[in-house]
TrEMBL record:
Cross-referenced InterPro entries: FN3_dom (IPR003961), FN3_sf (IPR036116), Ig-like_fold (IPR013783)
Protein name: Fibronectin type-III domain-containing protein
Entry superkingdom: Eukaryota
Organism: Sphenodon punctatus (Tuatara)
Sequence ranges assigned to domain Fibronectin type-III in this UniProt record: 1-53
Length: 58
């Protein structure tokens, strides 16, 4: 999957990733017509949040 990111961006959200999975990202730069890189980054997505058990009520 390719996700274009503006040059001045400091963060980006990658859609449709599964929770608790390891991903490898290959990052490339473009200068004119020349491709620079890649620089690789590994990341693990956060697990799904667990719901706290409901407190009993009277």
């Amino acid at each position: 999957q390719t996700l274009p990111v503006e040059g001045g961006s400091r963060s980006v959200t990658v859609p449709n990733l599964a929770p608790s999975r390891r991903y490898k990202f290959n990052l490339y730069g473009i200068s004119g017509r020349k491709r620079l890189g890649p620089v690789s980054a590994d990341a693990i997505t956060a697990p799904l949040p667990t719901e706290a058990p409901a407190q009993p009520s009277l």
